[in-house]
Amino acid sequence: MVDLTVNGEPRRVLVDVRTTLLDVIREHLDLTGSKKGCDHGQCGACTMRVGGSTVLSCLTLAVAVREPVETIESLAAPDGTLHPMQQAFIEQDAFQCGYCTPGQILSAIACVEDGYAGSDHEIRDHMSGNLCRCGAYPHIVAAVRQVRDTTPARGTGPTAHGTATGRG
Ligand code: FES
Ligand code: FES
Question: pTM for the full model?
């Protein structure tokens, strides 16, 4: 039996001890926003936040998770208002097929919040674990820049630019 807090709600699931966080979230809790790209820690499509830090949920055993989990479904407000990073991805045309996008957005939020969005090079470096087969990289960088430049300063990284918190 695994007890998790997912997007602010307590959830209990009975799973094999080898089950990954990604499979629990997608297959047992029916939150399918997080994607399984490679299942080997190589693409970033499964990125979630655990205790405020980004993790690759395909490499994380659900039984090992002790802190709250946030998925892409947590970002928009109940009235449908999008998180600033979601809005920026739309405005900057930062996706094509969209398969990588949930992971990209969660990593992008961390990039800004943690202060690693000081330059395009820094953004690309911080986002390098999230692959995009459609090659939307320049637009993704533009979306991160947009949020960086339109949100209040905060962060612990080298440039400590802005924050995209506020789950809407
Ligand atoms: Fe987890 Fe690719 S599905 S890194
Ligand atoms: Fe298609 Fe990134 S938008 S893989």
Answer: 0.90
